[in-house]
Amino acid sequence: MTTIIYLVRHGLTAANKDDIFAGCTQEPLHPEGIAQMHDVGSRLAGSTLTRIFCGPLTRTMQSAGIVGQFLSVPVQSEEALTEINIPHWDGLTKDSIRKAFGPQYPTWLNDPADFRVQGCETILDVQNRAVPFLENLFTEYPGENLLVVSHLIVIRTLLLHYLDRPVSEFRNIKVGNAQVIALVRDKVGGTVVEM
């Protein structure tokens, strides 16, 4: 019995276009992002999805809702799929972060596995909440095809896990807005990543 979880990064936002760290802000989709998610619905039309799970922020809820409405599939919001929590960066341009917070952003860019700031999540924190959530989906919905709509950082951490790659390779994982990736779990528990 094969179970497939499709991973999709939310559609494009104005923050994505303007190089702003959206973080946990309630950033909506840009019109281009809305169109992208309609396209995702079209691409997944033959996949017999039974359920959609998404992070609770506006851009993931909106993205999942578009696909859910297109395919008549229920959508459920889950905190485990939300974006990384770095609250003092939320809504700032990346240049502003560099100027205001010294070495934090260079560390984030060059050695994200070593990024540790009091009151903020780390890459491993995100992975440690996202992976168990997906594993629970594989267990709870055997033989079904599911969609998970989340954020770049969350999806990167999931792919690192399922590709059996270290957190130090975080920057090597490329995921575009509205990109569809499949995690295929076979009957003996093996998982293949189809990008």
Topology:
Elements: E1 3-9, H1 14-18, E2 20-21, H2 31-43, E3 49-54, H3 58-71, E4 75-77, E5 92-93, H4 94-100, H5 104-110, H6 123-140, E6 145-150, H7 152-162, E7 180-185, E8 191-194
Parallel strand pairs: 1-6, 3-4, 3-6
Antiparallel strand pairs: 1-7, 2-5, 7-8
Would you mind describing this structure in some detail?
It is a single chain. This protein is an alpha/beta fold. The chain is built from 7 helices and 8 strands. The chain has one domain (3-194): Phosphoglycerate mutase-like (Rossmann fold, 3-Layer(aba) Sandwich). Helix 2 crosses helix 3 and helix 6 (123-140) packs across helix 7. The model has no long low-confidence stretch (mean pLDDT 96).
Quick recap:
The protein is α/β, with parallel strands linked by helices. It has 7 helices and 8 strands. The protein has a 6-stranded mixed β-sheet with strand order 4-3-6-1-7-8, with helices on both faces. Strands 2-5 form a two-stranded antiparallel sheet.
